[in-house]
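DM from R.C. (forwarded with permission)

"hey, sorry to bug you on a friday — could you get me a structure for this? deadline for the figure draft is monday and I only need the backbone to look sensible"
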Amino acid sequence: MDPIRELIEGADPLRSGVGAVPDAEAALVRVLASPGNGPDKLPPNVRSMAAGRRLRNARIAGLLTMAAAAVTGVLVAAHLGSITAVPDPAGTSSMTPSAPPTATATAAGTASPTASPSETAGPTAAPTSLAGVGRGECSIQNLTGAMTSLEQLKPVLRLVGCKAGWMSIMAPAPSDNPNPEPGDWFWIAKLVNGSYVQETSLGNWAGAASNNDRLTAEQFMDKAFVTNGIPVELRPDLVGSPEPGSLAAEGLKTYEDRSTGYRVSFNYPASWQLVDPSGSLALTNGPGTALTDSSGQYTARLAFGDTNDWSTSGCQNRAPYKILDSQPMTGLPTDLASPAQGTPRFVYVAMTSAANDGGPVQAGIGITNRIAGQDGIGCVLDLAVAGPGPLKFFSFTDRRPLGGPSWGLYKFTTIGEAAAFTQTQAYKDLKAVITSLTITKVG
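My reply, with the result:
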C-alpha cells in the first residue's frame, strides 16, 4: 500500500479506535526517508509531462521524415510504435498494390512523376471544336431566320459550304410555302452567338450568267457578295463557280424567246449587252432583240415579222458582189411554200457600189436562203429567211440592201480590206453569235 495512504489511515481516529494519536512530524520524516519516493519523483508506471513532450516531438519528427521520404523515394524508419496487421476477412483475397509512380529528378531539384504502366487511362478529352445546335455547328439544324416556315423548309435545304463564320445553303425560292419544291437559290447565313442566322438570298449560277450588265457570271456573283456585305473572297467556298464546260464558265450568255410558239435562242459574249431592237432595217411587226459589243457598238439585230421589200425595185445600182465566207445552218426552219433558192446559211457578202450607195465597198453579215444576184452581179443583200407560220421572216444580223449611204452595216475601201476583216476577233465573235442561233418548235 502507498506509505502516505497508510499514514493517513493510521491517523484516522474512526478506523484506529481509541489508541494514541501518532506524531505527525515523525510520520513525515519517515515518508521522505523512504527510498525512490522523494517529493519530485513519480511512481515508475506514471509518465511525467516532460517525458510526454519528448515522445510527442519524436513522433512528429518521424512523420515529417516519412513525408520527405515519399517525395524523394527514400523510406526512413521512425519509431512510431508497433503496427499490428489486421487480417483479411474470410473469403477475400489480398491484392498486391501496384508499384508507386517513379520520379525523375531534375537539375533544379524538382521531380517529374512518371505514370505507372498499370495505370488506367482516364476519359477522352472533349474536342476543342464547338458542336451541336447553338454551339457553332455548321449544319442545317443550326440555321435560324425570320421565315415562319423555316422549320418546314429544312428537309429540302442542302448545305453547300461554310467558311469563316458564313454558311451557304441551296434552297427553294424564298417564300412561306411549307411544302416547296426544291429550288436553286443560295441562302447565305452568318454565325451569331453559336447559330447561323439567314442574312440574304442570291440567285443561282444560271441567273448570274444571264445578267445584262456586261459582266461574266463570276463578276456578277462577286458584285452580289459585295452588295450584301459578304466577304467576296469567300465566294468560291460558299457558292463555288459555274459548272466546268458550261457556257457561263466559258464567258458566254444565252438569249431565249418563246413568244412565237418557237424557242429561239443564241449565245453571245458576256461583255456584250442586249438592247432595244427597234432599229431593225428589214423586218416589222414581230419580236426580236439587238446586241451591242463591249464598246457599246451595234453588232447584230435579231428580228421577226414582215419584210419591207423582197423585190429589186428599190435598187439604184447593180454591182458586182463576192461571198467572202459561208457556213450552212440546215437546222433553221423555212417556209416550204416560199420561193427559196437554197438552204439557210450564214454568209458574209461584200459588194462594190456607187458613191451614192455609201461605197466604195459595202458588206453584209447574216443568214439567208436567197441568192443576191446572178453571175456575180447583184442589187440587194437579202439577209433574211422566210420561216413557217408565225415566224414569218427572220433575220440576223438584219437585211442590208444597197440603196443609200445609211444602208449597209460594214463599209470598206476595197474587197481585199473586207476580206481581211474575217481574221479579226470582232468578226469571229459575231460569226459565233449568228451561227449559234437555234429555232425549234415548242411542244
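R.C.: lifesaver. The longest strand covers residues 298-307.
me: no worries. Residues 353 and 360 are 5 Å apart (CA to CA).
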